[in-house]
Design goal:
single chain; about 140 residues; 2 domains; 2 strands; globular
Length: about 140
């Protein structure tokens, strides 16, 4: 039961560093933190690595897990896709086991594309349907 006395929700235009409900301050028990990440596994780094709290990242939950950090460091430090895939799988397992976050929903994108468009691939992230625009062509 909320007994008043503080701001629980604020419009994004009012959310600044001084506001008590600013997620970066870490003074919350539960928060709805919406964000979109890229297709690359390294996009986890800025949100979950222990060194990436404000102002250096988005680790607003103040996640501090040395095992997770180690896997994220591996992902960030290589271009070997097999090494990245293995480290990403371990990072996901750590996050699931420690309940780093509880996903409430996943944005579903539906794209309608003419059969004249060649090279279109659905984007597995929330970055939009034209992520590979350089590969698109139009058949006559």
């Amino acid at each position: 039961v909320y007994n008043g006395g503080g701001t629980i929700f604020a419009p994004w235009t009012e959310s600044d560093e001084a506001l008590s409900c600013n997620l970066a301050r870490g003074n919350f028990d539960v928060a709805l933190h919406a964000y979109s990440s890229g297709i690359e596994a390294v996009s986890l780094y800025g949100v979950y690595h222990s060194t990436k709290v404000e102002p250096d990242g988005q680790n607003d939950a103040k996640v501090n897990d040395p095992a997770l950090d180690a896997e994220l460091d591996i992902i960030k430090g290589t271009i070997d896709l097999d090494v990245i895939a293995a480290a990403a799988a371990k990072a996901q397992a750590i996050m699931a086991a420690t309940t780093v976050e509880i996903p409430l929903y996943y944005w579903m994108g539906i794209e309608l594309v003419s059969d004249k468009v060649k090279g279109f691939l659905s984007n597995p992230t929330q970055a939009g349907p034209l992520w590979n625009a350089g590969d698109l062509s139009l058949a006559n």
